[in-house]
Amino acid sequence: MSTTTISKKRKFVADGIFYAELNEFLTRELGEDGYAGVEVRVTPMRTEIIIRATRTQNVLGEKNRRIRELTSQVQKRFNFPDENVELYAERVQNRAMCAIAQAESLRYKLAGGLAVRRACYGVLRYIMENGAKGCEIIVSGKIRAQRAKVMKFKQGYMIKSGEAAKHYVDSATRHLNLKQGVIGIKVNIMMPYDASGKNGVAMKQPDVIQVYEPKEEVVQVPTGPAQGFAQNVQVPSADVVPQAQQIAPAQVIP
Q: What's the whole-model pTM score?
């Protein structure tokens, strides 16, 4: 990438082409090593390229040999000055939530000759057991016979439209070249909500409402001074009965 002055429109187009070519190159080179995406950070000093993968040790290679080879290839292809581009490898924390990693996994299972239903249901079960809210796998092409068809495997909750779908649904598409034709693989994963943003999406869905149970409130009845007829009424005891009210014992007349 040259440093000549260009308009903003051409700058956005150039950045998009650079990202697309870089992603395609890393997909072909690191597909077997669990490649899960790339992030480009441009700083005043250098351009940092962060490669996300499930097996970072394979990306780095023995004594960081492979990462240095990738750095040299990227530098020569995109005309970066010497020591102006750096490649880093970042490990994917939960690869079950990464659609790119699961699409690559399914692609290599089908390339190895595994049955389509068995491979798809295995990937679907693995994704759902690791905390995903929903998953959809679509495999199309000449799967078993000469007639092309589409097979869909779904489980859980999946949203298709709206602003939330852009944040909650992680999608990936891969192609497998077989002898009889091309097999298309598409994986959609519905991410869960996580306030921290580590194991899910930090943004809440606008149409999901949580109803809380009302709290039990203890109602205290105010007690004032005693009023009414019971205020000055005192029940006299047997010892306090007046002398005049005591009944004299019966006298026996001789």
A: 0.70
